[in-house]
Amino acid sequence: MKLTDKISQSKSTLFSIEILPPLKGKSIQSIYDSIDPLMEFNPAFVDVTYHREEYVYKKRDGGYLEKVSIRKRPGTVGICAAIMNKYHVDAVPHIICGGFTREETENALIDLQFLGIDNVLALRGDSIKTESHFVPEPGGHNYALDLVKQVGAMNNGIYLQDDMKDVSPTNFCVGIAGYPEKHFEAPNLYSDLKWLKAKVDAGASYIVTQMFFDNKKFIDFVKLCKENDINIPIIPGIKVITQKKQLTILPKIFHIDVPVDLYKEVEHCKDDKQVKEVGVKWAINQCKELIKQKVPCVHFYTMGTSETTRRVAAEVF
Ligand code: FAD
Fold first, then answer.
1. N or C: which end of the chain has fewer CB within 10 A?
2. 212 near 218, Cβ under 8 Å?
């Protein structure tokens, strides 16, 4: 079912989660173990992230270094199919520009359509670690906007090969990313919102935000979106802090701020057990306030563990 239909049919705030495929070589059981404890909260959808290749240098005989391409977390599409089959919940694969030609994207979308997947989250993806900035695949997309346009074209029955006859259009509901604290490459929020609006005009139907710890940033972002004529559902992304080291890691990776009050509380914790308690309490307060604001859904970045999400969900859903 399309997420936008689910949202419009629901009278209350929905619950959803994002999971990561397991590391290559690990069993899918770890995915089930992280979803099982959350099923009682009736997730509206489960997002499955996409992880492109990375390059590593391996030392070979004779001392020379070989550049090797590896994908640490393959399996996004297979996991989506497995989740839908096991839990009968909508699984939403993340699709990215990085590493894909337009043709590969088209073929991937055909696979998703055949699997009965109705929603995709269309993203650009980050640069690979060995590149200083995002480099598209030759023949691939530069921006998520172009990916949204490609899905939109397929939804209108327009495939890359223009001489195809009697084609079946796809029917994807397309989600996109939004950044209450601005995407790190954008010169300012004004420019970031301009491109966000372009993605909406190209056919995106809902927005999932980057994690944030200060609700005011989200509320201001939603207001700015409305002022810029962005009127699709905006789903806040929530992450529960569980470790002291996340005070520096999360801002570094996700380009977000940790509010001073949260920072001070975590800083004073004796160990990560206490940090977890602080994180759960903070997230509960965030969620209660967001639900009061009538957000369409609260989306949890579980990052492979369900325990803290479960504790928060138990308090607020
Ligand atoms: P875009 O919308 O393409 O924006 C990228 C930057 O370019 C922004 O600064 C924007 O302002 C600017 N811009 C946009 N369009 C144009 C244009 N036409 N011309 C000029 N400038 C433009 N990454 C993964 O690799 N896998 C995942 O599974 C994944 N899941 C995510 C889920 C969520 C909810 C979020 C918020 C992020 C996720 N990411 C994931 C990270 C994401 O890929 C990165 O943040 C990436 O750097 C930007 O992606 P985007 O889709 O927002 O890009």
1. N
2. yes
